[in-house]
Amino acid sequence: MKAGIVVFPGTNRERDMEQALRLVSGKAPTMLWHRDTSLPDLDLIVLPGGFSFGDYLRSGAMGAHSPILREVRAFAERGGYVLGVCNGFQILTEAQLLPGALLRNAGMRFLSQDGFLRVEANDTAFTRDWAKGDVFRAPLAHGDGNYTASEAELDRLEGEDRVAFRYVCAKGGLDAKSRVSNPNGSQRSIAGVLSANKRVCGLMPHPENLVDPDLGATDGVPLFSGLVKSLVA
Amino acid sequence: MSMIVNAELAARFGLSAEEYQKVLDIMGRVPSLTELGIFSVMWSEHCSYKSSRVHLKTLPTKAPWVIHGPGENAGVVDIGDGLAAVFKMESHNHPSFIEPYQGAATGVGGILRDVFTMGARPVANLNALRFGDPSLPVTQRVIDGVVRGIGGYGNCVGVPTVGGEINFHPAYNGNPLVNAMTVGIASQDKIFLSAAAGIGNPVVYVGSKTGRDGIHGATMSSAEFDEHAASKRPTVQVGDPFTEKLLIEACLELMATDAIVAIQDMGAAGLTSSAVEMAGKGGVGIELDLDHVPQRETGMTAYEMMLSESQERMLMVLKPERTEVARAIFEKWDLDFAIVGVLTDTAHITVKHLGTVEADIPLAPLADEAPLYHRPMTHAKPPARLGTVADPVGVEHALLTLLGCPDLASRAWVWNQYDSGVGGQTARRPGAADAAIVRVEGTKRGLAMTTDCTPRYCQADPRAGGAQAVAEAWRNITATGALPLAVTDNLNFGNPEKPEIMGQFADAIKGMGEACRALDFPVVSGNVSLYNQTSHPSGLSQPILPTPAIGAIGVIEDVTKAIGLGMPDHAELVLIGEIRGELGQSLWLREICHREEGAPPIVDLHAERRNGDFVRSMIAKGRVEACHDIADGGLLVAVAEMVMASGIGCHLDKPHYGTSLHAYYFGEDQACYVIATKHAAALIDEAEKAHVPVRHLGRTGGTNLVLKDGMSLSAERMREVNAAFFPKLMER
Fold first, then answer.
1. Which listed residue, A166, B457, B498, B722, has the most CB atoms within 10 A of its CB?
2. E-state strands within A39-134
């Protein structure tokens, strides 16, 4: 799998993502710079977490206007696979490659804690190594993760099976109103969504931080192993 | 304010009459305003350590694994594989009271720069925080701002905040403490130092532009607070973690080339201290042309530029033929890059602005004749040991009270605002083990790190308290299985011009030195923060509790062997160390009896070393499943914390005590560890052979903490009590 990781000024989880991709796929990804105006031959583009441009405007708003986003958009339009995690998800929504927006967390504070995600759709390259309904641990680390979209958009996402992950409590209980189950207050507990062709995926939590058995847990591995299976032809 | 240079202005800048006379003698004339500004900040307590130096010199700073001790931007120690850990702790106390968010944020930014200046990639942040009475609105405002500030900065730069400590005491009401620590990792053959060299080499400024923020910040932190503290808000700097992140990446990219001769961050006293220190250490002169300094505001004077403490700036001396390579890297990262001066053979610092020489000071006397004080000291007699105290409430009530009290309550509300996982190397998150553990990227090795101090012990007996702070840090690293390596100290005290404060300072350092020597735990970096004292309109002046915060690191060869608090089911509990039931200055005495009395627990450094070395050897042999040292709250709190961390309960044996039951359970005896093991018989046998005090303590199982006298508390109930304090205080 030929993966590329986009680095913006202020990106800070590119090394985490690089380690995860290398560990699971056995191959080092290519690092891409936000000013690049062409892409190497790639199977997957990852927009990692961080604070692109300091997030001094809206989170991800400046990153969405970087030169490389034109290339990312063209890549996605050609049917390429794109994964956005945390700030990368925010950039994908700002660039309108994914619907909705990420607002300030409901509690108005940064959240760094274990999150638990339930797999809602497993017919995608991002989720195929989970079963539908599987619950896995993924660390949250964000201030703006409160997923919001119009009711019509939310209905459409659900109708088209484009909700990839939902926040649940450790035992799997779903409750959009509970801060235990849905820590940042996301509408309908949505943690991750997919594009119409299911090849662009964005999520707030960080599966890339739980892939190494030496650090105690491997809950995040299926995201990457699924991509490897789909993209290594 | 009139800016005519005379003794009166010098006094307003914090120079005493004698110090000003020394300036006149060195200069042979009345200094310019800029020159007076340079003298005043360089000779401030903050920059010159004029009250503390004679005492600091007594601390042990050497060991075979120490690569650079005090005197550089941060300490550097060998961690194997050709790698080094670079670390330091530094205070940002006064700014954090005036403007908590920015004060704490820029404290984190400053200590990060001290570490990456040396060529290290920062891999972890920790902090040591002391707040006043939590019921006061001002304390809640400070907590909120400080926690947001630490998170806001650390989360954005992408350095995980993995550990720290928090205490509350009314002595910090008007003067909270914010001590920030950064640990970085560098290649031993790529350590960058600050001594300038090469006459004619360019002096380069990189990073943010200079503004009028923070002028005289170093002077402010060298004076007591009064009721006008809020009017000093303009002297607090404003942080920009985004620029810091760019600066880290740009500097590390440049450091991979061979362009840099010397590098130093602009911290306290900004351009002045970085230029003076770099040139002074290198024994060369330096000429700055301020016309080239990137400026955020128009019309800035030389005085303002030299004294500005604008953040996220660095000064470097480059090889002239590499200047353009460096410029390209900084431009890539959208950072200012300007050649602002040159190294000279004049042995002076010369500052030019708009065609005029604004300052021309000989460097040697500026450094060598900096004031050095042997301040008068008085030593309070340590209090007598506490007599017998009756238990007014019973064990169960006391345990629940302690678990819910401000000093022991769960810090999850705080930690959950700090990104502790960014970087992908965090092996033990806050609260999971006695020390945080971060893997060294590309290896199996882990760095263990902690910050510790028990100010109430230091107040009662500074020497014992200083030793205890070092011993506890050593113990916390040991309890994870790591080998403790070295210490950074952050010495927070009151006004050194008061003999009783100076006595506390000297005694605390004496105790620290004794512990560091006994434990082979040298001090490799540090920071002193004095004048932590609030003067009230009544004329009374309230000093903080003496707080020599200790930051420490250790190394474990295999990170997968590191031990935390989480106990397995069906294990035996074993107590290492001797419980005498030390209730003097204990949290039990304070929280249950509302008394802060008696002598603090005895620190037996021989027992500390023997017991700790034994525990570490048992962890290395794989005989330990979980380990926790006994500290605040004593044995029963330690066991309760293990039950809460694992969700697994335990049954404790009938206590073997030569003291009262409550003293046995809540005494804060030192050099003790609670261990969960599946090899109890072998472990006890080996301890006896090594003459290490050891006892069978109980068995794990179920979900309740059960005592022989009938007490039975569930993990869930204890967690509920333990978790309540912060959210209740802060989320109303």
1. B457
2. 44-47, 81-85, 101-103, 111-119
**Model ipTM over 0.95:** yes
Tokens 């506490």 belong to residue? B386
User: For residues B26 and B568, what is the distance between their CA atoms, to the nearest angstrom?
Assistant: 69
C-alpha dihedral sign at B726, B728, B729, B730: positive
Residue carrying structure tokens 């935390």: B564
Question: What pLDDT, in 10s, does the model give residues A16-71?
Answer: 999 999 999 999 999 999 999 999 999 999 999 999 999 999 999 999 999 999 99
Nearest CA in chain A to B437: A215
Look up residue B294 and give its amino acid. Answer: P
With a cut of 70, which residues of chain B have pLDDT below it? Answer: 1-2, 216-235
Distance from CA of B418 to the nearest CA of A (A): 6
Q: Quickly list DSSP for B279-293.
A: HHHHT-EEEEEGGGS
H/E run at residue B586? none
Per DSSP, A174 falls in state -
pLDDT greater than 60 at residue A221: yes
The residues that bridge with B28 in the sheet, in sequence order, are: none
Which 8-state DSSP code applies to residue B210? Answer: B
**From CA B192, how far away is CA A135, in angstroms rounded?**
47
Q: What's the confidence (pLDDT) of residue B231?
A: 60
Question: What confidence tens digit (pLDDT) does each residue in A74-102 have?
Answer: 999 999 999 999 999 999 999 999 999 99
Question: What is the CA B197 to chain-centroid distance, rounded?
Answer: 31
Residue A60 neighbours by CB distance under 10 Å: 28
Sequence-ordered list of residues with C-beta below 8 angstroms from that of B349, at least 6 positions apart, any chain: B38, B275, B276, B279, B285, B286, B287, B288, B359, B360, B361, B363, B366
With H, G, I as helix, E, B as strand and everything else as coil, classify residue B670: coil
Q: Would you give the distance in Å from CA A127 to the centre of its chain?
A: 12
Instruction: Quickly list H helices, chain A.
Output: 14-25, 67-77, 87-94, 151-159, 221-231
Q: Please state, in angstroms and rounded to a whole number, the distance separating the CA atoms of residues B20 and B27.
A: 11
Provide the greatest CA pair distance for chain A: 45
Parallel, antiparallel, or unpaired: how do β-strands B572-576 and B673-677 relate? antiparallel
Does residue A169 carry a catalytic annotation?
no
Q: Report the alpha-carbon distance of residue B523 to residue B111 in Å, rounded.
A: 17
User: Mapping DSSP to helix (H, G, I), strand (E, B) and coil, where does residue B500 land?
Assistant: helix
| pLDDT at residue A192 in the model | 98
pTM (predicted TM-score): 0.97
A125 contacts: CB under 8 Å, gap ≥ 6: A81, A198, A199, A226, A227, A229, A230, A231
Q: Is the dihedral of CA B476, B477, B481, B483 positive or negative?
A: negative
Give the Cα separation of B452 and B487 in Å (integer): 11
Identify which of B242, B417, B439 has the shortest CB distance to residue A215. Answer: B439
Comparing CB atoms, the residue among A12, A16, A112 nearest residue B416 is A112
Q: How many CB atoms lie within 10 A of CB A57?
A: 13
Q: Which residue of B has its CA nearest to A114?
A: B416
Burial call B556-593: b when 16+ CB within 10 Å, e when fewer: beebebbbbbbbeeebbbbbbbbbbbbbbbbbbbbbbb
Buried b (16+ CB within 10 A) or exposed e, B103-134: bbbbbbbbbbbbbbbbbbbbbbbbbbbbbbeb
Measured distance CA(B12)–CA(A16) in Å, rounded: 50
Task: Give the residues across from B89 on adjacent strands.
Answer: B181
Q: Is B397 a catalytic residue?
A: no
Rg (CA), chain B: 26
Catalytic residue among B92, B169, B216, B679: B92
